[in-house]
Amino acid sequence: MFKYAFITTAVFLSFTTVETEPAFAADEPTVSSFPPASTAAIDRVLSIEEMDRLVQIPEASARWRPCRVSMAPAQWIWLPSQRTLPNTFVLFRREVDLSGQPRKAVGWITADSRYRLTVNGRRVQWGPAPCDPRNLDVDPMDVTSLLRPGKNVLGVEVLYYGHGDGTWPAGKPGMIFNLTIEYEDGRRERIVSDPSWQAMVDRAHRPGQFKRWFLRALQEEFDARLHPFGWDTADYSADADWTAAKTLRCPADKPAACSSYPGNDLIERANPAQSALRMRQIPLLRETDVPAMRLAESGRVQWRRDPADWFEFRMPDSFRIQREPLAVSKGDGVWELPATAGSREGLFAIFEFREQIVGWPHFTIEAPEGTIVELMWQEAHDPAGPAWLDSQFFGWSRFICREGVNRFEAFDYESFRWLQLHVRNAAGPVVVRDVGMRRRTFDWSNVPRIHCSEAPLQRLFDASINTLYNSAQEICADGMGRERQQYSGDGGHQLLAIRSAFGEHRLSARFLRTFSEGLTPEGYFLDCWPAYDRLARVMQRQVDGTFWGPLLDHGVGFNFDCWNHYLETGDLAALDEPYPRLVKFADYLHSIRDQDGLLPVENLGVPQVWIDHIAYRQQRHKQCAFNLYAAAMLEHALAPIAQARGDRRRAEEYARRGRDMLACTVQRFWSPQRGLFVDNLPWLAEEKNPRLSDRALATAILFDQCPEGNTAASLRALAECPAEMGLSYPCNACWRYWALARLGRADVVVNEFRHRWAKMKSVLLNNTIQEDWEVAPDSIYQWSHCAVAPLYVLFGDIAGIRATSPGFASCQIRPQLGDLGDLELTYYTVRGPLRFSAQRQPTGHRVVVRIPAGCEAELLLPGSEGITLPSVLPDHQLGLKRFRLEAGKENEFSVR
Predict the structure, then answer these.
(1) Domains of the chain
(2) How high is the pLDDT of residue 56?
């Protein structure tokens, strides 16, 4: 991400230095006048047989490419119908008689919007991952262990969202399935989706159910009295409510959004020429059961109004809470609650989990028929505060009991640490047990290895790791409690930790592809994609109905996401699809420059410039940082990407554009008197007091944008944080930390980790990183957010490990440990683990580093005293001494 990764310096030695005056010729070429960018993405469509062979070699790089695939001879099927209401659940079942025990039964499945697959009543998996409606993932399945000789039943429960969701921008209903069963004697049998499947609307979930809120489609209400229990087992006999599935007019290599089924508010019909089914690019998620840690409290709810008035409208003064120890323990993890007195009384029980996690909440209740349970959740709760957890984004699901024992599990996943059951309409006592969560996490290849002798810092690093367990699953989301959306920009920084602490590259590659698919025809990115948010904002912006629009600065950040992925993994193929889109975005930015050669931040029409929401007092103050950012993108991210792809003409053009933009920014915002960039310099006479921002000053340091290398004032401001400087929110705080470390002040960073980050409420209570510097429980604040700067700054700036050529063919290590205690960590590079340990000594640290084979590594230190490693000349441009580290062995040295 930064110029001091040094690769950019090496690649662009032939480029001239920054010009002192901008130069925009009238006949200046645009990139579109050059030969078209490569479209070398995987164009050939794989057959089922080819997919089955490919999935058997999990270590092959091709296994994790998003190949275009065909599910033929399977057909898209759905309920026979002319429309599908939002939040409709359709059940599909297929009876299969097997002549013997299968040796193997593997296949592929997908649906729009979400499916839950069972075999003989046992859950197999849930999917698909969030996708662009034009590029829908197909998931592998292995049901070998669940099949048996004789009668079997394949069950697929499909939810069609119909409403926009943070994980689902749009689509049309459908399900497609292809399973190959292989016997010991070599015989094969194929089961595919076609009219032989039976279908039924599950009216336990009312079709047309209202939306939860702007970015959550499903407000679940499940009436167990209406559900056909056992429908996916061999003992069940289908009645007349079941019907033959309808075949949709949709090719087997296209998503359901391409079908001729009637359109909806979100999409009419996706263009088949621009659409495809894609082989899942990442492993299926892990699922583990996590029981609640304890019952925290219980009590009564006296309803002053119909409870529906609260749950549907949140009408004030709807109820009164009375805390009472009503829940009586009946054994380990089992509690009894008394009957409720009429329709205006409810009972509640609040359960606490050890930490904040993501998954499907569940519980078992033995209750009279008609008992209603509202299941509510919260990220953070103060036991001394309100005893009512429905205080976030309408976070509740409703379950209505049939007589006897009911096991309920939410269909969609949530993020929380606290769970509340509100029981009403109970004609007799109820017994509650098995309160917990089916937790979902990515199937990580490596377990993070970080050990620090300072307990508060260790707790901080552990909280960062748990936060990534929550945010980085199938997409790399901001937080799973509110939006569940995948952003670049501030959200893209977590990829640095995903690749370093976990050594995970597949998830990073999927991020690049799926985010890039949100490019608009105008040339800017829908900056959270695939998600509903920005599609809705585009409409709202037409009538000036919101500030929020597609954020151009996140499109700039996406270029760095692409470059960093290539630099750290060497995986240039992951850029095949994003690269032409980066080209179009660069052309768009070039087209909107103002008469001063700068990118505007106001009056842009549909898109917006955000940068940060707390560091700036006025929108126009963001222009300096935005242009420095875009200039750095062009010269230090997009230009080297073009160079790596052999597109030298574009590389040269982008580097020149970046230098020109920087020159214009210097001319407008650089203050020679103060020796730094002043965000409101053009309006200083009007505003009187100067305004600085950590983002502008940090960007200028990181990419050598200060005229004549004059960084002293910027460094001083970043270290001392004067009142006139705006400071970013936690997810953007990394820019300041990166700049401080670049100029040798990582001590400031370590101290902030100790005294600010490690004392965050979320770190101490939830084992997570919060979204904002200050948060409150029982509120809409996000307590688990992807602001994991402590993790990737630890690897890249405190241990100081950075790739300097693609695929870690070379790297540099610049430890800045200050007064830190003992530290051990492993950076999982593509060439193998890079192990780093530092033991505190009276005058510094004794450091041992083991470099993986195939990586040329050098050490950067302020001085050479006591260093016996081979020296490298010349000194580094920052005045640091360079030393060669040997791969395959332990390199030991002292850092003072």
Answers:
(1) 3-38+443-447+488-773+782-798 (1.50.10.10), 67-280 (2.60.120.260), 287-441 (2.60.120.260), 810-895 (2.60.420.10)
(2) 81
